Amino acid sequence: MAKYTTSSSKRARFLQGAAIALVALSLAGCANQPKKELTTGSISRTSKPVQSMTAPELSAAAESIGQAYEKNPKDREAGLNYANLLRMTGRNEQALAVMQQVAINHPSDREVLGAYGKAQAAAGQLEQALATIGRAQTPDRPDWKLKSAEGAILDQLGRAQEARLRYREALDLKPNEPSVLSNLGMSYLLTKDLRTAETYLKLAASQPGADSSVRQNLALAVGLQGRFQEAETIARQELSSEQAEANVAYLRSMLSQQGAWKELAKADDKKVAN
């Protein structure tokens, strides 16, 4: 593993901040399912997958779905889709407000409760999110997506062992699910076990259903070990040039914290020169 020239305390703070940010990202993507479930794969009023949308396209989709929601706030699908798009565009407080209304209108709907818990977590209400997702889960018909979401929240609370138990329970229900494997890898990244994190993230990225967020997490784990050029190659895989640049920009923003980007880039240049 590469040695960093930053102090151990600064490196730890940087790593903690980067990992929490991406665990939150993983949490937001835990429900990447077809339209019948919480929709992040595609939106009913658009033909383009959400993960393939640019920031302006996401904003336009949120505006369109928002108009449908405004016309009928009791429309379950419109509320779920609108809140999800709001989260994807960083409007977490507004997403939480939407999900509060949806939950009031559908108080016993498991999918709604799960989405409400995710909105609470994205807005920083972690303990409340755990309670809400706990209400959505049923012992006789456990939902792997809720198990994974619960794990991501526990990771943000610093309860890594409990989080990893939830991920493994989710994998028992849905073997080799890339979003769960990615969350498990990020759990190890949180505790600075970068090699184990990379192992799980590579496994996640190799699965047929893996999306760009999984590869973005893998790129971060690789970059934090000083292998910057490899990390940038991973971040650019199988994407349009615009999406690739956005992924690389995000990777750079993560690694630039505490000056880590410049130091890793210098270390990588030395390796190439040697």
UniProtKB/TrEMBL annotation:
Protein source organism: Ensifer adhaerens
The ranges of region (Disordered) come to 36-57
**What PANTHER family has UniProt attached to this entry?**
BLL7664 PROTEIN (PTHR12558:SF33), CELL DIVISION CYCLE 16,23,27 (PTHR12558)
PROSITE patterns, sorted: PROKAR_LIPOPROTEIN (PS51257)
Q: Residue ranges under compositional bias (Polar residues)?
A: 39-54
Q: Which domain of life is it from?
A: Bacteria
* Signal peptide annotation: 1-31
Q: Keywords in UniProt for this one?
A: Signal
- Decide whether keyword RNA-binding is in the record: no
Name under which the protein is recorded: Tetratricopeptide repeat protein
